[in-house]
Amino acid sequence: MDYQALIDEVYQEVSSMGLKGKVADYIPQLADIDPELFGLALVDLEGNIYGAGDYRKEFSIQSISKVHTLTMVMHVFKSKLWHRVNVEPSGNPFNSVAQLEYEKGIPRNPFINAGALVITDALVSKYENPEKDIIDFINDITGHKSVKVNELVHQSEIDHSDRNMALAHFLKAHNNFNNNIDRVLDVYTYACSLEMNCIDLARSFSFFANDGYCIFAKRRILSQSHNQRINSLMLTCGFYDESGEFAFRVGLPGKSGVGGGVAAVLPGKFSVAAFSPQLNEKGNSLKAMKALELLTTKLEFSLF
Amino acid sequence: MDYQALIDEVYQEVSSMGLKGKVADYIPQLADIDPELFGLALVDLEGNIYGAGDYRKEFSIQSISKVHTLTMVMHVFKSKLWHRVNVEPSGNPFNSVAQLEYEKGIPRNPFINAGALVITDALVSKYENPEKDIIDFINDITGHKSVKVNELVHQSEIDHSDRNMALAHFLKAHNNFNNNIDRVLDVYTYACSLEMNCIDLARSFSFFANDGYCIFAKRRILSQSHNQRINSLMLTCGFYDESGEFAFRVGLPGKSGVGGGVAAVLPGKFSVAAFSPQLNEKGNSLKAMKALELLTTKLEFSLF
Amino acid sequence: MDYQALIDEVYQEVSSMGLKGKVADYIPQLADIDPELFGLALVDLEGNIYGAGDYRKEFSIQSISKVHTLTMVMHVFKSKLWHRVNVEPSGNPFNSVAQLEYEKGIPRNPFINAGALVITDALVSKYENPEKDIIDFINDITGHKSVKVNELVHQSEIDHSDRNMALAHFLKAHNNFNNNIDRVLDVYTYACSLEMNCIDLARSFSFFANDGYCIFAKRRILSQSHNQRINSLMLTCGFYDESGEFAFRVGLPGKSGVGGGVAAVLPGKFSVAAFSPQLNEKGNSLKAMKALELLTTKLEFSLF
Amino acid sequence: MDYQALIDEVYQEVSSMGLKGKVADYIPQLADIDPELFGLALVDLEGNIYGAGDYRKEFSIQSISKVHTLTMVMHVFKSKLWHRVNVEPSGNPFNSVAQLEYEKGIPRNPFINAGALVITDALVSKYENPEKDIIDFINDITGHKSVKVNELVHQSEIDHSDRNMALAHFLKAHNNFNNNIDRVLDVYTYACSLEMNCIDLARSFSFFANDGYCIFAKRRILSQSHNQRINSLMLTCGFYDESGEFAFRVGLPGKSGVGGGVAAVLPGKFSVAAFSPQLNEKGNSLKAMKALELLTTKLEFSLF
Question: What sections of the protein cross the membrane (chains A, B, C, D) (predicted)?
């Protein structure tokens, strides 16, 4: 399989489609980005890199970090975590508080904001220096210094965190939150403010395509069973209330972020990351989603 | 009309019914109350007092204070307030956050918690010393020193305010909250922690029965129009999602509190307060509601 | 009180406001009406009539008939009916099926469509010739032949009744529907297709203002208690999810219809009907609502 | 891989767990089944059959037929169908009408009842003799006469179809229903009343595991792309509001029915069917679900 030719072809086709979306503007640091940026990178299981466009440009990974932090607590918590957060698709916007009320403080899944707050609360309970430990973990699984926090974004996220504060207090009211809310929100927004480029983001997802073993860290990150479960979660819940559409059209486990990034894996084959800041109305990157759809359409193999 | 005989009759009948409910237990200070307390007091428009049972016993007025604080800001804000809070019955529990999400941060009415938080936010904007001003206002409309705060209840309310914190942050996320959240919650829980007896609570509602003029303060508190509007709000929204039932069976504008109190008025005739800590499943006092139902059934006149 | 001068003044002021709404167009027979029609009529408790504008023009009373049919079964059923339909404001659009699902087949109140279907089902159970009996009842309470059905509207309502069919089947699935669905829908749409003018509509509401005694039929229609309860229901639930707003601004028990009519009462004083086909976004007549608001503002007396 | 040993092991383990659920009782014909029945059968891509327990016992396939009927119209409609029904997980019970209201008559996916009604409506539009064509289709893909309708169940389903009638009328009110409602409900309940045993049910799912080519019919049933999309839909939506849980624990595309059956596939490997009438609270078979979970846990390979 000539991945480079494939990536180039996908890049050209998507670029020529004239897709127009809306850059996230809830904080000024995200709104200021060049809307025309677009890149993608594929990393196979030998670690070869294939990229096109702005695939070396760093961007805010935002909610994609929810997969990294979930991985960090899977290891620690095992099954106990799943009493505090469910594994069902939400069918509602990512920051909905209504569903949390109907279901008495148990978030639908770990990738909506309420669920990720529970995950971060668990992470703060178990790690000594959560911010440093997150950085160390991501650097480890990419095999080099690959990630840094954007402090302006971090501060701005904190300044605009009223909805997440509402979710956290609501979780606490239901006894599903153990640590200081400000502290957890600080770590939560820190993880959302991380910046990576497409190569490193794809590398950080490589072990998901490899049964849980990371070729860059040269160690097992997740048991095969845990690895399958996170892949399953990404397939059913990775794209908010557009998860079914992504599974239907693309068919890969993946996760999007409001910064315009998408990371996904084809188990046994490769990991891939795409980035373009223009979003559709569900908050997912138009070009990145389309790039992955074309990629799987052109490939012979599929999850199903 | 022999109000004293009427009150006595109602007291006897309700006492003999064996009604059993559940005392509020979300904070220990409320849970510790003697569940058998029951009293009621009626105040006519000449200021005569008719009471039965534990009508001189002080209790936590809780949400009944929402009517007092709304009155304090009606005077200041006039119509502008109604861009921030609606006047429709909620049809949902008093502390629902789901409805607030569906309606984009505009609370259904000023008597559900979200609406009362907006009212308190407005009050904090306009009054120099909100706590003192609330006390002064209530003392003024009862004509003597009638109210005090229970500091243990106040502290405990603050310690159990996660749901209200969630509502406040959600309001702030929708730009419907102007002041520091902790400060507003402090005032909000202060007002909920006020203690009065049935006589003084009925006196504090007297002007609602008298077109807005208070015979105890010897001054107009609300314009006739504002007075009618608050009475209308109490009739349609005063008893959470049991408001229709109360209007249907009792037919008086009124307001309940989770401490077991209910205050109501028959315009042109009298104000009345009843108190018993055992609540029904909607959070309204079983005996106090039944007492007011019997009262209007036995009386010849009615709102309708 | 010079009611004729008052009515004229209200008519002139509302006419000069340039209010613009949208005529109901879900069936062609309603859409074809002259949108500029506007009339109002007041009937005092001696039976004197005061009118302005198109107050002698007949129009489709639509949901206002729900009050007449409820009155017909109040007499028959007494309290048993209230196990099948609640008395709470809905807080949702008049034809919502979602709320009916959440509340397991018990409609919120008798004036939303689901509730009115239960009422009509009860009426079909108890009356031999429902259509004729409805006509006879309304003629009786207006004191002369005052109402007729528009068969074109009736047929068109039947042809567009899928939402109501959905509600009826849902009620049946919850064992809250006893008769043949097509038969009940036929009677339901028949009542919605009745036509009256403002004078007769006001006359038909006169007994609600008179403690349940009808001066035209020269007999008691409802007990004082039942009369108060229907008035209470109209105040809290008579204008769909705008009921709170109407109570707040107007303060009268009343009922609106999608044909542009509104009927209301001031207990002890008068009944009133207004009509203009241009509706606001909640489905209530803009000019008729405004006319009643001005009327109560200009009057000295009020419910509260 | 010794599939027979695996199937036997799974059968023994699940049998010894003492799982207790509730047999569907909304119609008497389902309630009368022996609750202790339990069987499973696996069919590999060469057509070899491996079974255990009551795997030759016929049972009511109920909603599993929704996959067959969807397959029949995929072929005819291609992409046009997806304007009428979405592909997102529902997050709500299978017969919810509330979600349909919020989303304006577009069902969440083709496997909830509202979506399956749209599919059946499309099927009635395109097939001359829908009942016969469904039977012929299933017989074709199993390679022999494998299915028959239980007329008692069929009649009973019709007699208990008020909720589905409500959904159909609601769809029609939103212009998302083209045929006579009674006719479509007749076909819909017919498909739900089909009976198969585990072998034939697994055979009927074989082509889903084989890129769309059926070894029994000896022809392509679905294009590779359509096949992947139905597999994706089964993974994200096949088990009502327990779909995420099934994907998380089992990780196979599949579909359950209220008769106690489950059918699933491992693409490239096999199809499998299990049956036991005792259901969990979500309406899925307790033992069948557990059997598939054990099966994938014991196997080396997985979708992810």
Answer: none
Q: Determine, for residues D244 and A303 on separate chains, whether the beta-carbon distance falls below 8 Å.
A: no
Q: How confident is the model at residue A79 (pLDDT cuts 50, 70, 90)?
A: low
Residue type, C6: L
Q: What tens digit of pLDDT does each residue of A173-191 get?
A: 999 999 999 999 999 999 9
- Quote the pLDDT of residue B196: 98
Tell me the shortest Cα–Cα distance from C32 to chain B, in angstroms: 32
C233/B244 CB distance under 8 A: yes
**A167–B contact, CB cutoff 8 A:** yes
User: What pLDDT is attached to residue D78?
Assistant: 67
Measure in Å the smallest separation between the Cα of B210 and chain C Cα atoms: 9
For residue B93, the chain A residue with the least C-alpha distance is: A101
Q: Pick the range with the lowest mean pLDDT from A45-54, B82-91, C177-186.
A: B82-91
Helix (H) and strand (E) counts in chain D: 13, 12
pTM: 0.92
Cβ-defined contact of B243 to C297 (cutoff 8 Å): no
Q: Does B166 touch chain A (CB under 8 A)?
A: yes
At residue B150, what are phi and psi to the nearest 5 degrees?
-95, 110
Q: Which residues of C are annotated as a binding site for substrate?
A: 63, 113, 157, 164, 188, 240, 258
> Residues 94-113, chain D: which have Cβ within 8 Å of C?
96-98, 101-102
Query: Tens digit of pLDDT for each residue in D79-131?
Result: 678 899 999 988 777 777 888 888 889 999 999 999 999 999 999 999 999 99
B98 contacts A101? CB cut-off 8 A: yes
Provide CB contacts within 8 A for A5, sequence distance 6+: none
Q: Which residues of A touch D91 (CB under 8 A)?
A: 88-92, 99, 108
Give me the average pLDDT of each 10-residue run along chain B (304 residues).
95 97 92 96 98 98 98 81 89 78 89 96 96 98 97 96 95 96 98 98 98 97 93 93 90 96 97 97 95 91 78
A164 is in an annotated binding site: yes
C-alpha–C-alpha distance, residues A14 and C218, integer Å: 80
Contacts of D186 (CB under 8 A, 6+ apart): D158
Average pLDDT over residues C251-265: 96
Which residues of chain B does C249 touch, with a Cβ-Cβ cutoff of 8 Å? 229
Give the whole-angstrom CA distance, residue A222 versus residue A227: 6
Amino acid letter at A99? Answer: Q
- Yes or no, beta carbons of B89 and C91 under 8 Å apart: yes
For an interface test with A, the pick among B169, B172, B174, B184 (most A C-beta atoms closer than 10 Å) comes out as: B169
* Per-position b or e across C35-53, b if 16+ CB within 10 A of its CB: eebbbbbbbbbeeebbbbb
**pLDDT for C92:** 75
- Given a cut of 80, whether residue C77 has pLDDT beyond it is no
In tens, the pLDDT along D48-78 reads 999 999 999 999 999 999 999 999 999 777 6
Q: How far is D293 from chain A (nearest CA, A)?
A: 12
Per-residue DSSP letter, D285: B
CATH of A3-298, one of 3.40.710.10, 1.20.1410.10, 3.40.50.2300, 1.10.10.200: 3.40.710.10
Buried b or exposed e, range D123-144, using 16+ CB within 10 angstroms: bbeebeebeebbbebbbbbbbe
Distance from CA of A89 to the nearest CA of D (A): 6
Of B266, B284, B216, B192, nearest to B275 (Cα)?
Answer: B284
Q: Which residue's structure tokens are 């339901």? A: C188
Reply yes or no on whether the pLDDT at A301 is more than 80. no
- Interface contact C93, partner B, CB < 8 A: no
Reported ipTM: the value is 0.91
